[in-house]
Amino acid sequence: MSAFRWPVLDEAHQALRSAVAGVPSDGWQQPTPAGRWTVAQVLQHAAADQLAYAARLTGGPGPDYDPFEPSGTIPGSPVELLETALTASAEAFGAVDPADAEVPVPLPPYTLTAARAVEAAALDAAVHAWDIAVASGLRSPLTPALAKALRPVADDVVEPLRGYAFASALEPAADADEADALLNHLGRRADWSG
């Protein structure tokens, strides 16, 4: 049983679950705001990222494919693929002491404080939930409140990954809310439409 609860991770994981549950059966090959990736590829990437966080925390196995080269073919159920990854991530982070100052993470800087490590995993899940939802014609699960909670970790970890995991930042509109501003900071067009 998990010793610690991380509400921001729970909220981001739930956003990803709801987005995936809302994808229509014929929607898996639709384009997304995540560059050249389809909905299926974003799901594979998001699931692999959560497994990578779990593996860094536990020393257990990570994804069996490169998260940055998803095939777009999901064997079995998309919901099962996601649930396996989210369960592993939640259980691994449940064992992280909030006072830990050096929690291993799969991307630079490779260690973060406990809170920042959790927020990094949550950022990944929440943004990919948004990718999947908007590509599927669903309402965005990235709320302004969740985006506000995730903005500090985005400010801390995104720059070393520009051009690899994140595109160049975009200037937000004058009336942008916290969610749109976060998406723009990550190089996503908040007004994206397929």
UniProtKB/TrEMBL annotation:
User: What InterPro entries does the annotation carry?
Assistant: CHP03086, DinB/YfiT-like, Maleyloyr_isom, MDMPI_metal-binding
Stretches assigned to the Mycothiol-dependent maleylpyruvate isomerase metal-binding domain? 9-133
Name this protein carries in UniProt: TIGR03086 family metal-binding protein
* Native species: Kitasatospora herbaricolor
